Amino acid sequence: MDRQEISRRIKQEGQRLGFDLVGISRAEFLETEAKHLEQWLSEGRQGKMDYMERHFDKRLDPRLLVEGAKSVISVIHNYFPDATTQPPGAPKISRYAWGEDYHKVLKTKLYELFTFICAETGSPLNGRVFVDSAPVMDKAWARKSGLGWIGKHTNLISPKKGSYFFIGEIILDLELEYDGPVRDYCGTCTRCIDACPTEALSPYQIDASKCISYLSIELKEETPADFHGALEGWAYGCDICQEVCPWNRFSQAHSEEAFKPLTLNGLPIPSLSAQDWEEVNEQTFKRLARKSAMGRVRWQKFTSNLRLAFRSSLRETLPPDSPTD
Description:
single chain; alpha+beta; two-stranded parallel sheet; 13% strand
């Protein structure tokens, strides 16, 4: 079977498994990204995410992760939900965390795809599956594979799908037919930059130490007081830069059963009111965390996030200079 045919079958099978798009790029050193990453780290924009400083070379060269690697297969999987609004005044949860843990969902499908490739080629292959689980620059590989461009908010944007999707990869020692990148269509738009309440964004750059997603998830201690007035009710993650992106007018509801909203005390996550969240206890939260991506935060951190979200939500509904404590 030639490279063109096996590549076509891989994409066809990937879409059958539920991936929205599948692209392929050559496994090689990411020279341009290396310069940007080095500068980003030197400026301390990673905040306290020390793991970003480790495995610098592996992060940029997939051949150091998979011996003999020749190809990187990138996939995207839509998670945009039917219900897109949460009750007024309720702490906000990023849409990607409403359903089951995407790491497990995508990995299962990627392993199935890898098994399919081995069967189609009729030979054992050396390869690995990745979903935010190793030093892999997933957005860079998705861009090189033609799945979209990296927008000014630093998220991958598909001209047909928007940006509400997860990314995964298979790195393997099989030479395939490679796709090329698509052009950048952000143009002069700066809506994401203008909308960010913590000023974490500049064109094609993010200061993670100021990002609400970082402050509510990656930062293990309580969010610094300097940001308390800018959280806009977000208790886990943040969707602001995606909500204002014009390309997300193309977003359509996913059909993935695993990404349907999980429930807390019998209620779907996006329908929980402020009072509902106040009634959530540690045991209930831990049951949720075992199933969802919200397992990245401990109960103590999450309760701190809830308190700050309540305060910031209340501040938005009060007249200027009204007390919130």
